Amino acid sequence: MSPWIKQVCLVLAAVFMLSSTTESKKDEALYCSACMAIAEEMNYSVSQTDPKKTIHVGGFRLKPDGSLMDKKVPLARSETYLNELLEEVCNSMSDYALYEDPDTKEKSYKRFAPRGNDGVNFPDFKNFKFDGPESSSALKFACESIVEELEDDIISLFSSEADHVAKTLCSEVSGIYI
């Protein structure tokens, strides 16, 4: 066997061994926080939708008697509307920052910006770490990754009005443990 073939085989073996031993590890706090933020933002957007608004869904085919085969569902729980919300959900990640619990020193991303007339008591700002746009862009990237990977699951959870959507989405469906 010629020497250059041996060298190529040796290099290929080293590459395969190296690639099998190295794994990219996701930042658990970042991805868990992004998942929780998706659920929180989607829940908020759905709750702000007028419950009286409905949308026609179905095939719009005619029955043998001439009537339409469609049904009305609440707009807030329609796949079309949830899809629109999901496309915009990651844009609100700039309203989140890294928060360190003063007692447990556990780090997670939490919303620091109030929503209009929400009146919610927010944690003390001294426990937030504002690291500039880099930290919110990392959270936005994690959000986009989760949405891209789990889009159908997220829509089906919200359209079925499941209880404990955040827990179901962030632990059972995605495998990210909260």
From TrEMBL:
Alphabetized UniProt keyword annotations: Signal
Family classification: Belongs to the canopy family.
Signal peptide (residue range): 1-24
Entry keyword Signal: yes
Residue intervals of the DUF3456 domain: 31-174
Taxonomy, superkingdom: Eukaryota
Protein name per the record: Canopy FGF signaling regulator 1
GO cellular component, one term: endoplasmic reticulum
Pfam families, sorted: DUF3456 (PF11938)
